[in-house]
Amino acid sequence: MNSMNSLSENYSKYLMYFVLTLFAVGFTGCSNDDDVDDLIIVDPTGSIVVQDNQTISDDQITIENVTVGQDSWVVAVMAGDEDTNNFITEPVMVEEGSNSDVELDINDDVNFTGGETGDQITIKLYADDEILGTPGIWDPSDDPIRDENDLLVTETITVFVDDDDTDGQAFSDFDTNQDGFLDADEIGDTYQNDFTTWDVDADGGLNEEEFSNTTFANTDVDDDDFIDEDEWDQGFSSMYGNYVDDTDFATFDTDADGGLSAEEWNAGFADTEWFTTYDADADTSVTETEWNTGLYTDWDVNNDGVIDENEYNAFRVYTDNW
Q1: DSSP at 238
Q2: CA distances (Å), origin 133, targets 128, 140, 141, 295
Q3: How many angstroms from the chain centroid is the CA of residue 189?
Q4: Nearest Cα to 161, choosing from 307, 295, 300, 320?
Q5: What is the three-class DSSP state of 144?
Q6: Phi-psi category of 146—alpha, beta or left, where left has phi over 0 and alpha has psi -120 to 50?
Q7: Which residues, in sequence order, are CB contacts of 234 under 8 Å at separation 6+?
Q8: Does domain 46-162 have CATH number 2.60.40?
Q9: Do residues 61 and 54 lie in contact, with contact meaning Cβ atoms separated by under 8 Å?
Q10: Secondary structure (3-state) at 76
């Protein structure tokens, strides 16, 4: 009898161990399934609703609605720059879900053509990467959001410049004979010449040091005492491209800090013909007349003797701040 009881007890124990083992295996399996689910990477999602044919007021673009499946960034580029990070606005963070009336501030160095046709810009979305990047701060690890067809989620619209935002500086305001061009007489009215301030020693002309300091200050559009790569590229294409052979920003940014100081700027142009070209009479001093003539020649990018609206818009970013 004792033997039978012992066998029965052992059988009950083995059965209990077997059941517990099955339970443990099942639990472990569920736990592993949860881990697998945690490892599944869900593609970021987003959509944009924005009014076309907007008139820009107070340097802002308004996005009616942005709906995203994760914290994301909204930003604008010029149409055609969809595959770049050439932002014309500062990235704005939107939280997961639906976001209404998102406002984008246009960068100071953006030049819109304006006129009756307006300009086309593209709104883009970037997912905030909280693993490789810094949460809440836009950085290059934040990838653009794509749809199920692997196409960028974007909306392209046409914008128009509010006449009140131009402070009367529209191209047509200066094209007094309405021929579609600015001649040497008309161009003189397009900017507030600050020559007397640039002429530090008040001798009626800019020596080479004053000339270098002036060209640096005029190219430093945001007035932060450094010329960043965007300011360099803009200036090269519309002002001093004739005087430097090397277009590589890094060549001039000798300390590789991402900006040109006045010292780096002056050193980079020390051996060019910029100053001597403006100094037409070669007396080591650039007078106001020589300055105006030099500017007009440089801004006439295609060398046809007049300045068209595109050329005007390219240099307006400078003269608006003089």
Answers
A1: I
A2: 8, 8, 6, 44
A3: 30
A4: 320
A5: strand
A6: beta
A7: 109, 221, 314, 317
A8: yes
A9: yes
A10: strand
Taking every pair of Cα atoms in the chain, the longest distance, rounded to a whole number of angstroms, is: 129
Identify the residue whose tokens are 């953006």: 110
Q: Are 122 and 154 in contact (CB under 8 A)?
A: yes
Ordered mean pLDDT values, 10 residues apiece, the chain (322 residues):
44 46 47 48 89 81 94 96 94 96 90 78 94 89 94 93 55 85 82 82 94 89 88 78 80 92 90 92 94 86 85 73 62
Q: What's at 156, amino acid-wise?
A: T
- For residue 319, give both structure tokens: 């003269």
Nearest residue to 78 via CA among 119, 126, 125, 127? 119
Note if the pTM is more than 0.90: no
| Cβ atoms of residues 74 and 104 within 8 Å | yes
DSSP-derived 3-state class of residue 2? helix
Q: What is the DSSP string of 6-65?
A: HHHHHHHHHHHHHHHHHHHHHHHHHHHHHHHHHHPPPPP-EEEE--SSEEEBTTEEEEEE
d(CA 173, CA 63): 31
**Among 262, 265, 241, residue whose Cα is nearest residue 251:** 265
Angle at CA of residue 299, ends 293 and 304, nearest 5°? 90
What are residue 34's phi and psi, to 5 degrees? -60, -40
Spatial distance between the Cα atoms of 242 and 295, rounded to a whole number of angstroms: 12
220 within 8 A of 227, measured Cβ to Cβ: yes
Closest Cα to residue 307, out of 186, 205, 127?
A: 186
Three-state SS at 106 = strand
| Tokens read off for 173 | 């305001």
